[in-house]
Amino acid sequence: GEDVSQLVDVCRQRIVFETLDELAACLQAMAADTEVRVVRVKNRYDPDFDDRASAGFRNVSVNLCIVSEETLRFGVERHVVEVQLLLLHFAEATAESAHKAYVAFRNVRGE
């Protein structure tokens, strides 16, 4: 479609953690930050997550907006960004080609 308000990963960043506790602490910090508005969280590390839905790709994907004086001043407080949280051992094992395969898979599904 032509509704650009549905774009949520034009701006994307990845943070890599050595432990699940560190990853969880980051999620808690995001949730506690008064300037962060979490829009959606996809936990692809959840044991119930069917990795066939992501071609085996695993992470925690957080879509969020920053609502601050500065973003309000520039009118971008509704801009949704994606922050991918990955465990180090998975990030190292995931080759660039694996992520490209996931993106192609997702695009075929229309996501």
Shape: globular
Low-confidence stretches: none
Count of extended strands? 4
**What composes the largest sheet?**
4 strands, mixed
Task: Give the strand order of the largest sheet, numbering strands 1, 2, ... along the chain.
Answer: 1-4-3-2
Determine the structural class based on helices, strands and strand pairing: alpha+beta
N-to-C span: 11 Å
Radius of gyration: 15 Å
Helix content: 25-40%
In N-to-C order, the SSE pattern is: EHEEHEHH
Query: What is the number of helical segments per DSSP (H or I, 4+ residues)?
Result: 4
- How much of the residues is beta strand, in percent? 25-35%
Mean pLDDT: 86
Architecture overview:
By secondary structure, this protein is α+β, with helices and mostly antiparallel strands. The protein is 35% helix and 25% strand. It has four helices and four strands. Strands 1-4-3-2 form a four-stranded mixed sheet. It starts with 11 loop residues before the first strand and ends with a helix. The model has no long low-confidence stretch (mean pLDDT 86).
Q: Which descriptors would you attach to this protein?
A:
111 residues; alpha+beta; four-stranded mixed β-sheet
How would you summarize what this structure contains?
The chain has 4 helices and 4 strands. It has 111 residues and is of the alpha+beta class. The radius of gyration is 15 Å and the shape is globular.
Question: Which SSEs are present, and which pair or pack?
Answer:
Elements: E1 12-17, H1 20-32, E2 36-43, E3 60-66, H2 69-74, E4 81-87, H3 88-93, H4 96-109
Parallel strand pairs: 1-4
Antiparallel strand pairs: 2-3, 3-4
